Amino acid sequence: MTAAASAEIARTVVGILGNIISAFLFLSPVPTFVAIWKRGSVEQYSPAPYLATLANCMVWTLYGLPMVHPHSLLVVTINGSGCVIEIIYVTLFLMYCERSKRLKVFMWLMVELIFITVLSLITLTLLHNLNRRSQLVGSTCIVFNILMYASPLAVMKLVVKTKSVEYMPLSISLASFGNGVAWTTYALIRFDPFMTVPNGLGTLLSAAQLILYATYYKSTKQQLAARKANGEVNLSQVEVRDGGQESKPNYSS
Fold it and tell me: Which residues are listed as membrane-spanning (predicted)?
């Protein structure tokens, strides 16, 4: 077996692994939407992460097409699947959000669809060279990925401010790190700068999240324990009596 053939097999295996990890990340909001469906309301949840992920998946699907960037089937499979999943999320959001918010979400969705349509038309009709097509769509992918980093950066800022990792699940941080490593490796085997740059940055951000988790894990446990203890004290001070009489604090030792 030649070195080139071995490299291609390794790239395929890493790409399949990347598909599996990415699928886990795409499906991670399912419990949130099950809760929204049961309550019949999106409450305070923001549609921004799902709209941003949809836009990101659409441009990466375009990038992976054979007429734009050949030999990138695994990029198409996962991002095409991501588009379907995110459209379902956005549709559920439209169904269960308030009318005022619904119009705003719908307008953003239309803007994204118009943008990807225009980008596709320009790429496939005006650019007749694979290299130019890859450069245009690949550069767009990098910009969209960098914009998506605003979300993990905001979470990391919150962790440092509160000294708590309560709102930064370890499973998501680990999956994000594994996803970044897999796709960075995939991009390096057959060097692709447009995939290496955003996934390399994503790997570094995920590693920083894991470092923060290790740093603030103990303080988070202490905060949760203190909160639980306070709740138990408050409950223990309430003496419930039969006959519907008024409850009184219990100060006896």
Answer: 12-36, 72-94, 106-130, 136-155, 167-189, 201-217
Contact of 247 with 240, CB cutoff 8 Å: yes
CA distance 234 to 245: 19
Angle between helices 193-236 and 170-189 in degrees, nearest 10: 170
The whole-angstrom separation of Cα 182 and Cα 63 is 18
d(CA 15, CA 120) in angstroms, rounded, equals: 24
Return per-residue pLDDT of the chain as tens, 253 residues: 787 788 889 999 999 999 999 999 899 888 888 988 998 988 777 888 889 889 999 999 999 999 999 999 999 999 999 999 999 999 999 999 888 889 999 999 999 999 999 999 999 999 999 999 999 999 999 988 877 777 778 788 888 998 888 878 788 888 889 999 999 999 999 899 999 999 999 899 999 999 999 999 899 888 888 888 886 444 444 444 444 444 444 434 4
- What three-state secondary structure class fits 95? helix
CA–CA distance from 28 to each of 79, 80, 170, 222 (Å)? 15, 17, 12, 27
Judged by DSSP in three states, 248 sits in strand
Q: What residue ranges do the domains of the chain occupy?
A: 1-228
Report the 10 Å Cβ neighbour count for 21. 21
φ/ψ (deg, to 5) at 239 = -110, 110
Scanning the structure block, which residue is given the tokens 């390096």? 188
* Count of CB atoms situated within 10 Å of the CB of 200: 17
What SS3 state is found at 238? strand
- Look up the pTM and report it: 0.80
**What residues have CB less than 8 Å from 205, skipping those under 6 apart?**
149, 152, 153, 156, 176, 180
Only one residue has tokens 């519907």, namely 244
